[in-house]
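User: Hey, quick favor. My workstation is busy. Could you predict this chain's structure for me?
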Amino acid sequence: MTTVLVTGATGKVGSRVVQELRACGVPVRAFVRDPDRAAAVLGRGVELAVGDFAEPESVRRALAGVERVFLTSGDSLYKVEYETNVIDAAAGVRRLVMLSTVGAEVGSPVGLFDWHGRIERHLRGSGIPAVVLQASHLMSNVLAFRETITQASRFFLPVGKARIAMIDPRDVAAVAAAVLTTDGHDGKTYLLTGPEAITYHDVAERLSAAAGRTITFVDLPDEAAWQRLVQAGMPEWLADDLVALCGLLREGLAEPTTGTVQALTGREPRDFAEFARHHAGLFRLC
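Assistant: No problem, here it is.
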């Protein structure tokens, strides 16, 4: 197989896509901004295409000679521009696999969902053979609360008792590698979830068991959560989005589970208890 270009290659999903493809013996080119950080995250021996989504020429250079692409980027106000530029530059590739999200929809009140919806629409109109992976709430989102948990043994979100079929980024990456390297997926959209829908109270219990200390989840009203997020340094647009997202989670947006991970990879997705054990060292007291 020819080289696969992985964008967002140092991110929580992209880095694991690189690992999965290399484990299968597939040549990988990682599109990165910082080669030193890339070497630290990905290890030596990975071909790096150093560039920036904001520099179209660097994107075109990264795509030279590539037939398959994994597309993802960090969440920012430029996400639609960056990813649609990659799609435009990728005309002629044999397959493009895009990482999207559950709830992606043009016009969604959640900006991130609207952005993903617009990118999906652009991809469908591009004529490129493509696969969309709509991932549920990533288990790794809880890592954003590491500092609060280590300092105060608690974390907060305005999600109430919402049940969420969280998924481990490693399982998303395994599916991405599978659809990048096997046929029969073009034109499909796959919804990826974990094995069960759990609450953030369940998350706290499983983190507590893994870390050997009591960790508590605190539900907050929307306004109080927004204030805390902004005071902690989060941009207001992102705090707006997170609070709106939590409202949709309370309505059951991410509660359904699917068997897609097992069907495409041959194994069951990891549950949150396994994720918590894998990252337990991050939440233990020194």
